[in-house]
Structure to design on (499 residues):
């Protein structure tokens, strides 16, 4: 019965996604849902994009083994990313009326900056989407009691998500996110209620976690431990800001006000709700210490699903796996769409400037298929944990894409030369330390990359300019104002501004 419910749920999800595809008429509809989403849907899609495999399996497993200090990156860093993006970037980016964050880099700087930062963004999604696919393989393995291997489950999960994302784009993602947010929240809250009955309530779990030191958030008074702690926090908090999925949620809203409100509200709900799977997973150590103690040592990611399978009734299992599938499918579809749209718009289209809207739409869909296959290969061959795959994903954007975005938006003196110095300096220093020293480095390599990137931006912008692309008397930020003004005069049909 559990297997048939999962099959039915997947069929319904695909059906809803395909039905939503009737609203896709052009690239703008596909990429940003025609900039038409109301506040509840924007809030739901912000929440659902982040509440995926890492929130359900990764964060809960990390908390069980390392406590609150181990989850500083997610949900603490990730929720702060969405709040910062909402308050400081949403209005600025929304008014530009563009399809991707890569478009911003081109308008603020030049084509080479657009290409390099877009490649950084696309590469960063490999780990994130692979984590979702890996989690779907784990679910199919658990539900079928091993009849479907984790590898076969990954292939099946990738095929299902690929189907409705390819046809419906952002419309499918948004509608399914709204439905799946309700399912995932309701299902996990019910599981938490069932589990609290087995532990004697919520208080005993909290007391046990506190006594075990799991609620200690800050590290001991060791400067190097603090550097590592801050590095994990900043990687997710700042490295996630120059991401296409965050940008898509902002620009899919009906208005700039809804973009800000949806980002902040979705982030707040996400932060609070991440503690639900943490509570459920840690409860296992009270319910059956021997069994789950051994499982934590072997594979802590299986603690949560094993607890549900062994200690809850069938209806609770159905609700749990429905909730988890909802969370992972909504997250994986959004994170599959974002890099594909970025690659089509900011890499491919630049080489074919006369490409029509329908051709661009076909390229976006073709790119999704190619990226899905690549991600599947990464998931099948990676030994990294789900949490680790997500956490590592943002190192490249922190070192190579954050500084040009931040300084470009808030420092008028930022130049193309400064942006290129920031990108190459940040990426080179990060990669060299990552490869040559790795985990032995007392300072996280991505933090060094961020510092070098900032220094490169300031020095490159203030020194005599040898690299540029605009007329001598035209400020580099002027194009943004011109484009924002032009964005209010688009002809019907989904155009998205001059290249």
């Amino acid at each position: 019965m559990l297997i048939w419910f999962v099959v039915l749920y997947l069929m319904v999800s695909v059906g809803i996604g395909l039905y939503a595809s009737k609203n896709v008429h052009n690239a703008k509809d596909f990429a940003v849902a025609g900039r038409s989403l109301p506040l509840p849907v924007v809030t739901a899609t912000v929440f659902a994009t982040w509440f995926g495999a890492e929130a359900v399996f990764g964060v809960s497993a990390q908390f069980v083994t390392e406590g609150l200090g181990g989850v500083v990156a997610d949900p603490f860093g990730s929720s702060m990313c969405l709040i910062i993006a909402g308050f400081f970037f949403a209005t600025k980016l929304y008014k530009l009326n563009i399809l991707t964050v890569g478009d911003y880099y081109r308008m603020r700087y030049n084509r080479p900056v657009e290409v390099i930062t877009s490649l950084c963004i696309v590469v960063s999604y490999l780990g994130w989407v692979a984590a979702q696919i890996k989690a779907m393989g784990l679910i199919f393995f658990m539900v079928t009691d091993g009849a479907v291997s984790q590898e076969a489950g990954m292939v099946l999960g990738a095929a299902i998500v690929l189907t409705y994302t390819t046809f419906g784009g952002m419309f499918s993602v948004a509608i399914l996110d709204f439905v799946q947010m309700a399912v995932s929240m309701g299902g996990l809250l019910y599981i938490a209620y069932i589990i609290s009955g087995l532990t004697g309530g919520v208080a005993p779990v909290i007391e046990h976690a506190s006594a075990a030191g799991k609620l200690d958030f800050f590290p001991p008074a060791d400067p190097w431990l603090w550097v590592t702690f801050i590095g994990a926090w900043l990687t997710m908090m700042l490295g996630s800001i120059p991401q296409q999925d965050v940008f898509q949620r902002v620009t899919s809203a009906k208005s700039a006000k809804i973009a800000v409100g949806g980002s902040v509200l979705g982030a707040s709900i996400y932060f609070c709700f991440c503690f639900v799977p943490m509570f459920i997973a840690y409860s296992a150590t009270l319910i059956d210490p021997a069994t789950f103690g051994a499982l934590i040592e072997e594979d802590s990611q299986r603690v949560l699903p094993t607890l549900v399978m062994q200690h809850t009734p069938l209806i609770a299992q159905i609700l749990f796996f429905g909730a988890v599938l909802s969370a992972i499918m909504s997250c994986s579809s959004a994170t599959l769409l974002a890099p594909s749209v970025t690659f089509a718009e900011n890499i491919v289209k630049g080489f074919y400037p006369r490409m029509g809207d329908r051709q661009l739409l076909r390229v976006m869909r073709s790119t999704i298929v190619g990226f899905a296959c690549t991600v599947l290969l990464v998931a099948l061959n990676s030994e990294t944990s789900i949490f680790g795959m997500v956490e590592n994903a943002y190192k490249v954007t922190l070192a190579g894409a954050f500084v040009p975005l931040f300084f470009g938006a808030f420092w008028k003196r930022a130049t193309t030369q400064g942006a290129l110095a920031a990108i190459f300096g940040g990426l080179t220093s990060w990669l060299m330390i990552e490869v040559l020293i790795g985990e032995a480095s007392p300072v996280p390599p991505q933090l060094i990359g961020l510092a070098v990137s900032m220094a490169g931006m300031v020095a490159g912008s203030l020194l005599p300019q040898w690299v540029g692309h605009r007329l001598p008397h035209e400020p580099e930020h002027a194009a943004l104002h011109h484009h924002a003004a032009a964005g209010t005069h688009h002809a019907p049909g989904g155009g998205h501004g001059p290249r």
